[in-house]
Design a protein that fits this description.
By secondary structure, this protein is mainly α. Helix content is 69%, strand content 0%. Helix 2 packs antiparallel against helix 3. The protein is flat, with a radius of gyration of 22 Å.
């Protein structure tokens, strides 16, 4: 980066932060936030949909990865095993992370 560009770079970053802050303030004024609305569903049904089903699906994905690794045991080196297990973890984290609306 040539000399003198630091100031314009900082100004553009500051502008992005200011736009984000303005959007956040507008969302707060309009009542848009991350607080989930109360549900009319029974407690057991909410528990199954919000906790048990994602957990079972995550375990199923890890099981599928394990079966796939057992079937391809001779084809791939052992150092790829952790990478294969990252796939179901990433899927579960992006779909069912705490605080993320369902």
């Amino acid at each position: 980066m040539p000399l003198g560009d630091e100031r314009s770079s900082l100004q553009s970053q500051f502008l992005a932060v200011r736009k984000f802050a303005t959007a956040s303030a507008t969302a707060a004024e309009n009542g848009i936030d991350d607080i989930p609305l109360p549900s009319n569903k029974p407690a057991l049904q909410r528990f199954i949909l919000e906790s048990a089903l994602p957990m079972a699906t995550s375990l199923l994905l890890v099981g599928v990865a394990t079966i796939g690794l057992l079937l391809t045991d001779r084809l791939f080196p052992a150092n790829l095993v952790p990478i294969v297990y990252l796939i179901p973890v990433i899927i579960a984290a992006t779909r069912w992370a705490p605080g993320r609306p369902s």
